[in-house]
Amino acid sequence: MSSVTQPQLTESQKNEISDYINAYRAKHRAPPLQWDNTIAAFAQQWSYYLVSNNLFKHSSGSDYGENLAYFKGYGTDPMTLLKKAVDSWYNEVTLYNFNNPGFSQGTGHFTCLVWKASTNYGMGISIDTATKTVDVTFNTSPPGNYSGQYQINVLPAISSPAPVPNPVPTPQPVPVQNKTIILNALQNILNALRTNQPRNTLIILVYDLIKVVTALSI
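Request: output the structure for the sequence above.
Response:
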C-alpha cells in the first residue's frame, strides 16, 4: 500500500492560500492570482510523481510556470506546508537585484511568484507519511521568467507589512530549501558540461552558484 497522501483543499483553504500568496504579490504591485482547478490538477499530479519516485525536478512540456519545494520535518498540516513553501520562494527577494533585473538560479522562485503578468495558478501537495517527506508544486499561467520582461513584471516592494506564517511549526525544524537551491545550481552546471554549452553560459552558471552560496553564508 502506498504511503503517499494528497490532501484535498477545501474552498476555504484555497481562498486562504490565495490570500496569502496575493499579499506578497500586492507588495510588488502585482494583481491577485486566481485559483484554477485545471492547473491545480496538473500541480497535484506532478507532486505525487515526485514523492512517489523520490525525485525533485521540474516538469516539462507544459505551458505553466513552476515552483517546487521539498520539506522534511515540518509535519503534515497542509496549510502550514503550503505557506512554508510560499515563504521560502518569496525569501529569495533578498538576493534579487532590482537595479539589474533578470533571471538567476537564486531568485527564479521569487520572480515566478510575483510575476505581474501571471493571472491564474494552482498548487499541489503530496506527503509520504512513511518518510515524512513533502513535495509542494506551484504552477502559474501565463508563465513568468521570460528574458527581457523582468523590469515590467518584477517590481520593487512598496512599504507594507509582509504576511506572517500562521500557524508556525513547533518546534522549528531545519529547512532544506537552501540545500535545494545549491543542488539545483550544481545540476545546471553539470548539464551544461555534459551538453557542451558555450563557455559564456558555463561562466554565468558558475557565477550564479557563487552568488547563491555567498548570500546563504551571510
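The longest strand covers residues 120-128.
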